[in-house]
């Protein structure tokens, strides 16, 4: 998890320098520690005058043959020789959109990462969380670390938690690329067969999924737009829980909360909100029927938008409208060439704008975790260095 591909062990070395012997290289350290590590790198770059950190939002790019101008939300602008765009995917609209007109703001948390999002709750109050993925688990853990004892309900369409990582490294399966490239169903069959074969030898299924990692992008690119859409429609949520796994000890903690009755996972979606007696009543439609959750706060952990065609994000919509950017066949993100340069509407690369991260999902599918991000950054930096 080091920030650069040249030194993948750098995060562990940083942990060792602060808490010697506390973390093994294969442990999952808290995300907040990783944030501190990254901020240390940023602070060092600022101290050496090789970086500035501006708390601004970019709303538009304008390119000239020699520059890129970044127009900021404040009305100011910045001129750069080259730009590396890494804004992640925009926030999805909250799952209670259209139902919250009469609901006082304090009951609803649209962004779980916003400062103070969990402040002001009494330790015994009930909380509902929309989503049951990694962000939801993070929020449950944060609440419990703060001493929150009230009941927590995770509400999601599938009602599935991420599956566990295995403690010791497993040998990843090797797949024939042409088998995976045939399409979604042949690929699914190959992975199932590999998992069964591992199970027959008493080995964990995780090796069958980890073996896909090095071939995910090539497989995704070999599939037609129809196959990719089929995957997104039918297999996305299964992929998410198998691929983006959680540390086993966190899942065990959730299980013990479930057993003690302080955590529940409900399959369903919100279809109404009201306030009664100072509490939020969340009406839930689930396969089992209708129900009501009475809570002090409802937290949105449903994750980022699943596509950008209908985006209202100012930067992304201006890139699409101006033709400086273009979206992939499935509308998951923005297109880039193999070097990472953002592709214009006419299919030509912008010579001075690179894309990094989840916005490249439409081209690569696997484009969110640190190992992929640091490779993309290194590639972009190598490409833009001659322009500086
Ligand atoms: C709970 C959880 C656990 C995870 N665990 C792991 C893990 O164990 N290993 C792993 O490899 N990955 C993990 N991930 C994934 C990884 O953390 C993310 O994919 C990664 O943080 C993405 O980084 P990013 O910089 O590309 O995007 P983001 O973290 O989304 O950052 C984008 C930044 O751009 C800013 N921005 C956006 N638009 C604009 C704009 N117009 N102007 C100015 N700024 C803008 C945003 O404010 C934000 O600061 C996890 C993710 C979650 C949610």
Instruction: Tell me the count of domains.
Output: 4
User: Approximately how much helix is present in the residues?
Assistant: 25-40%
**Strand segment count:** 14
Strand order of the largest sheet: 5-12-6-7-8
What is the ordering of alpha helices and beta strands?
Answer: HHEEEEEEHEHHHHHHHEEEEEHEEHH
Which structural traits does this protein have?
single chain, 388 residues, alpha/beta, FAD/NAD(P)-binding domain, 4 domains, five-stranded parallel sheet, three-stranded antiparallel sheet, 34% helix, globular, binds flavin-adenine dinucleotide
Task: Provide an overview of this structure.
It is a single chain. By secondary structure, this protein is of the alpha/beta class. It has 4 domains: 1-53; 56-90 and 306-387, FAD/NAD(P)-binding domain (3-Layer(bba) Sandwich); 105-160 and 265-300, FAD/NAD(P)-binding domain; 177-243, no CATH class. Helices cover 34% and strands 18% of the residues. It has helices at 10-18, 31-47, 134-145, 177-181, 184-200, 206-210, 216-222, 225-234, 236-243, 248-260, 314-322, 361-364, 370-384; strands at residues 58-63, 68-72, 77-80, 83-85, 108-109, 127-130, 152-156, 263-267, 269-276, 279-286, 289-295, 297-300, 341-343, 349-355. The strands form 4 sheets. It has a 5-stranded parallel sheet. A 3-stranded antiparallel sheet has the order 1-2-3.
